[in-house]
Each structure stands twice: as structure tokens, then as C-alpha cells.
Amino acid sequence: MSVTRVLFVCNSNAGCSPMAEALLRHLAGDRIEAGSAGLRPVDIKPAVLSALEKLGVSTQGLYSKGLEQVADRYFDLVISLGSRVHQAASAIPAARHITWNFDEPGDEDDARLTRTLHEIYERIKLLVLIQDRQQKSLW
């Protein structure tokens, strides 16, 4: 079976989408290729990288990217992390586009960052579980 390609898109590619990318890589290993991008990319927040590392999730190779850096690639699934980016994300070639809504973690709010990280983690675990049980692409 070929590797399923998933792209997470958020506004800045500084919080939610790199979290989702790192978590999917961590949980799915080489079964799913995960990426992320943003409409207006800025550096990934240090607190996001720290929170992922505290969970034992590798942040190696994780960096902020813009949509133009992935616009020429095809994905099996594009997940918009917020309704504000759905329209732009839907222009990325993919078999399926969906939207998940999460609070973007703030720079100073550790509780919000932790809550968002755990919400994304639970959603990714479910995605991987369903994918593995199906033993075929969901999309």
C-alpha cells in the first residue's frame, strides 16, 4: 500500500498545524506522510516546540512553511485547522478537504497551549486508529 499524504493548514504555521504534523508523524511513523503550512507563516512558537518535546514527540525537521511551498504537491487529505483558512486550503490539490477547529495557542497562555495540544493529540490518535483498522486509505 502507498503512503497516505496528509497536510495540515493553519493561519501562521506557528502553532496548531506544526503540532498536528509532529503528532501525526509520531503516532503513524512511516505509514502516513505528514506536512503543514500556513497562509502567513511565521516561526514556530518556542512554547509549541517545548510542549511537543515534553511529550517525547520529535520536532526534528519541523519548520514553518507557506502554502506556496506545498501548492504543487498532491495530498490524500488536507485538514484546515480553523474555518478561516478552509477556502485557501481547498485550493491545494487533494482527494479530500476537511476542517477541524482548535484554539490557536497563545504565546503567554500555557494552559491554552496544553489544552489545544491534547485536543489535537486525541484527534490524531483517532485518525490513526481508524486508518490502521481500515487497512486502506480513508480518503
TrEMBL record:
<dbReference type="InterPro" id="IPR036196">
    <property type="entry name" value="Ptyr_pPase_sf"/>
</dbReference>
<keyword id="KW-0059">Arsenical resistance</keyword>
<protein>
    <submittedName>
        <fullName>Arsenate reductase ArsC</fullName>
    </submittedName>
</protein>
<dbReference type="InterPro" id="IPR023485">
    <property type="entry name" value="Ptyr_pPase"/>
</dbReference>
<feature type="domain" description="Phosphotyrosine protein phosphatase I">
    <location>
        <begin position="4"/>
        <end position="130"/>
    </location>
</feature>
<dbReference type="Pfam" id="PF01451">
    <property type="entry name" value="LMWPc"/>
</dbReference>
